[in-house]
From TrEMBL:
Belongs to the KhpB RNA-binding protein family. It comes from the Bacteria. Residues 140-206 form the R3H domain. Its main location: cytoplasm. This is RNA-binding protein KhpB. InterPro entries: Jag_KH (IPR038008), Jag_N_dom_sf (IPR038247), KH_dom-like_a/b (IPR015946), KhpB (IPR039247), KhpB_N (IPR032782), R3H_dom (IPR001374), R3H_dom_sf (IPR036867), R3H_KhpB (IPR034079). Forms a complex with KhpA.
Length: 206
């Protein structure tokens, strides 16, 4: 855990000095007063300054950024990590050159990375947060591709009058398919099979 000890004329002065050096806000730290300021003889001889220890709080967001930074360094990848915290969610987007290795086949490596970061960053945290990781906007492009596929295969199922079985997908991608087609009155969707081979069936309504 990162912390520093600083002195000042008052406790507030010492805290402000520490916050400026750590480049964080008061809400992001725990403050321990090591020594209160005291006046010496005649009010000024032997005056003792206040001394505080300021520790940066460990949060899921900070843990996630730190872990991703270490992974990127080990893989010799030069990236920018943008992090946005929203209520119960943490949205992370990684940008940089040649990041296909982090995405993997149909996002499998990215999903594994996201799972690992969720486990590690939320460990021992009182309040868990769901962490979503994207790379160069891959997930949005994948979502668009899946929606187009869903519409195409739904039309195929309706025209041929028989079920169309999609390849196995993870729960997030299956949700995209189900959501894209839920408003149609000529077909319906359901899932069958066990993870990780669970797949969607698009069936025409009789």
């Amino acid at each position: 855990m990162s912390y520093i000890e600083k002195s000042g004329k008052t406790v507030d002065d010492a805290v402000e000095i520490a916050l400026a050096e750590l480049n964080v806000s008061r809400e992001e730290v725990d403050i321990e007063i090591i020594e209160e300021p005291s006046k010496g003889l005649f009010g000024f001889i032997g005056v003792k300054p206040a001394r505080v220890r300021v520790k940066i709080k460990e949060t899921a967001a900070r843990q996630a950024r730190g872990l991703l930074g270490k992974i990127m360094k080990l893989m010799n990848l030069n990236v920018d990590i943008d992090l946005i915290e929203k209520d119960e969610k943490i949205l992370i987007n990684i940008n940089g050159p040649d990041l296909g290795i982090l995405i993997g086949r149909r996002g499998e490596t990215l999903d594994a990375l996201q799972y690992l970061v969720n486990l590690s960053a939320n460990k021992n945290m009182e309040k868990r947060k769901r962490i979503f990781i994207d790379i160069e906007g891959y997930r949005k492009r994948r979502e668009d591709t899946l929606k187009k596929l869903a519409y195409k295969l739904a039309d195929k199922a309706r025209q041929r009058g028989r079920n169309v079985i999609l390849e196995p997908m993870n729960s997030m991608e299956r949700r995209i398919i189900h959501t894209a087609l839920q408003g149609r009155d000529d077909i319906y969707t359901f899932s069958e099979g066990e993870e990780p081979y669970r797949k969607i069936i698009i069936a025409p309504k009789k």
